[in-house]
Amino acid sequence: MKVIVLGSGVIGVTSAWELARAGHEVTVIDRSAGPALETSFANAGEVSPGYSTPWAAPGIPLKALKWAFQRHAPLVLNPLASLKAAGWLGQMLSNCTSEAYAVNKGRMVRVAEYSRDRLAALRQETGISYDERTQGTLQLLRSQKQLDGLQKDIEVLREDGVPFELLSAEECLLHEPGLAGSKHLIAGGLRLPGDETGDCFKFTNRLAEMAKALGVTFRHGVTVKGLDKQGDRIVGIQTSEGPMVADAYVVAMGSFSPALVKSLGMKLPVYPLKGYSLTIPIMDAARAPESTVMDETYKVAITRLGDRIRVGGLAEIAGFDTSLNDRRRATLEKSVGDLFGGAGDMAAATFWAGLRPMTPDGTPVIGRTPVQNLFLNTGHGTLGWTMSMGSAKVLSDIVSRRPTEIDASDLGISRYGRGVTATRGGLKPATA
Ligand SMILES: Cc1cc2nc3c(=O)[nH]c(=O)nc-3n(C[C@H](O)[C@H](O)[C@H](O)COP(=O)(O)OP(=O)(O)OC[C@H]3O[C@@H](n4cnc5c(N)ncnc54)[C@H](O)[C@@H]3O)c2cc1C
């Protein structure tokens, strides 16, 4: 079958790889000059099923109010953009109940753990390398209050069977010796030994090369302008290079997916949640992180990627604006400066912003749509790198009409049939 994948971020490229492996003739179309040049370019690098948690959680509305008055707040709401996003924010709020949180978390963990296993299998099979490290991740707590607040997270980890270690400040240093100079700031840590890190941009580009070797065609510099529908099928797409035709179409355009399917009457609740990162060349490797350290105070992840440190995080409701804000940079610099001072050359750092394609329930949208040959693999929000390999295999199995290896009945757009609060099955369980 001829399949066109729209988008060559980590989600589009992994989709193309799995579809090609399933025997399809695949073309990937993207407006950028190469793979992973938008949100998949400089994320925080965590492959973290252990932290696969929806942002819509009980207590978040109150925390968001408190953050409004903090200088280094993890979440910033631009008033005008927030007004425009009121509908989506309302949907997110309705997912902040304990019941919705449990359903959404269950879905995310299911996809993320499957993804981590698929990524490990890919590494073993192909030897793909991307500055990966499989040394776990460490959530760093700076106060007793934060330590006390861990209890709920620990219960969830136990329930989900995720291995974890609760560490004292001294024990944190055994895993992350670069923290020695900031020991006085550390109250303790929660280590997830099963989590990994790696450079999503390198991974996506290397996988794209491997996909080309399997016969996948990449058409870069081509903008998708619309979908042509006749009856209940897509009969072609309109692009800046003219019309293109296939048997099936996969939308993996990140935050730009909703605008494309809107013309078909589909309401895809994916919002561009802005985040920032700094990439810092390492000057003193002994002071740098070994793996990923999550600074709970600022909700910032500090990751070792080869000879660089990636510091990423923060969330801003700011529409599609990707301009760089110096106040956010100051927050990233404060976090890494506090914990790994002197490790990197801050003057040579690269500052970046990207748009997380975020659903109100935190779960990506993977699977069929009411249009027969149109499929979605999008809305991966804060965890697209983590969830990429598993999402791609689920998508490929659904396109190929094969049974999926994990339950995908509640991952599709049909789950929004009754509004956007979590429901176990959605309207039509057959429509993944
Ligand atoms: C600061 C930050 C930190 C993050 N940290 C992590 C992390 O540690 N771990 C993790 O798992 N995830 C993380 N994420 C999330 C992760 O990066 C995203 O979920 C993921 O990159 C989304 O991939 P995507 O392929 O869906 O979107 P994108 O990478 O944005 O790809 C979409 C593609 O569609 C193309 N496109 C869009 N519109 C059109 C059009 N009209 N025509 C043609 N092409 C088009 C774009 O050019 C782009 O290449 C982070 C994100 C941010 C912003």
TrEMBL record:
Annotated ranges, domain FAD dependent oxidoreductase: 2-397
Molecular function, one GO term: D-amino-acid dehydrogenase activity
InterPro entries referenced in this protein's UniProt entry, alphabetically: DadA, FAD-dep_OxRdtase, FAD/NAD-bd_sf
Pfam families to which the protein is assigned, alphabetical: DAO
Cofactor section: FAD
Catalytic class of the enzyme: oxidoreductase
UniProt keyword list: FAD, Flavoprotein, Oxidoreductase
Domain of life, source organism: Bacteria
Single Gene Ontology BP annotation: D-alanine catabolic process
Gene3D superfamilies: D-Amino Acid Oxidase, subunit A, domain 2 (3.30.9.10), FAD/NAD(P)-binding domain (3.50.50.60)
Catalysis performed (reactions): a D-alpha-amino acid + A + H2O = a 2-oxocarboxylate + AH2 + NH4(+)
Function of the protein: Oxidative deamination of D-amino acids.
Name of the molecule in the record: D-amino acid dehydrogenase
Species assigned in the record: Haematobacter massiliensis
